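Supplementary Methods, section 5.1.

A reviewer requested that the exact input to the structure prediction be made available. We therefore reproduce it here, unchanged from the version used in the analyses.
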Amino acid sequence: MKKILVLVVGISMFQMAFGCGNEYGYSLSGKRIFTRYFYLTDGMKQFDTVFINEKLLKLKAESISHPEDHKVWSDISVNLMKLGQADSALQILLPLYQQHPNEYNIIANIGTSYELIGELDSALKYISLGYELNKDSHFGSEWVHIEILKAKLKEKKSPGWLKTHRILDVSKLVARVDYNHSSNGVRKINDHISYQIRTRVPFTPAPNQVISNLLVSLGDFNFQVGTYENALLAYTYAIDFQIDAYIQRKIKTKIGKLNNSRINAQNMAELSPTFIRMMNRSKIDPEILLMGIDDYANHLDSIHMAEIIKIDSLKLLSREIDSLKGVQEKLHQQNNDAFKKIEIQSRYIWGLGVFAVIATILLLIKWFKK
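The structure derived from this sequence is encoded token-by-token as follows.
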């Protein structure tokens, strides 16, 4: 029992040191909403080709000993797609489909293969068929995939369509939210869009119009009914995936409006240390938190200058602008303080976790020897 107790304590310490949790973000009305922060790390943006090739070798060896196992061959096709060999994947999948016409994974993989080689009509056909067979696949997010394919077909028919239209209509996204359980509804929509973006990113490196378009909708959705944090993140990544300078400026304008809305909110909440840490790890410039604040100051200036003839408010105007600058300086200081605090805490917690694990292992070795 003593050995088990020490092991449990050691594992608990390890989880305390390295575990991660979920937080409640804030809507612009000040409402706390459970959220999973949307983020993209460098590792998410590309496939690990070394690992994939190693996996292919194992799968091919398995296919020799089990040549009739359609699951092995389907997995081989998936890994070939990740290596840019969608044509080869199709050559495997189409015969499998003839033998297993109701196997969801095979049908969905055929749809993805067709999309990767640019045959969008066939891609839509098979992805839609797969969705009818299994609406819960990919955490129920394949409806987003279908909308993406419809949009890509429109872009193919009318080049430039993606620059002026949204793949996902935000008003329809909002309508999908169950307002009796709005927090869960918002989270579900966020999870669906986030999952589809993350699975596409390694196949479609930046710049990419489709990814940028999806991210703008994700930002707009969170601006309306979700959290400030996720709206900010979505807009920021949308800029990274966008090559058109005009559209980039429009996205930056959205960020400016978002930040000003947060400043004007009655209950403006401070950003959590976890969120700031995630921004830091994702290499997001903290200055993005201040984008648009100067524009707001200019807006205040124009309003008060128009009224200056009616009332002598030069001092009031000065105080308003100074107050706004104070908010800006406060945000800067909050970011700097949070980064320093997080760095110190991370080092302490990491050291504590390592010590706990080593101590547990040494004690177990000692007792097992007895």
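The chain has a mean pLDDT of 80. These observations are discussed further in the main text.
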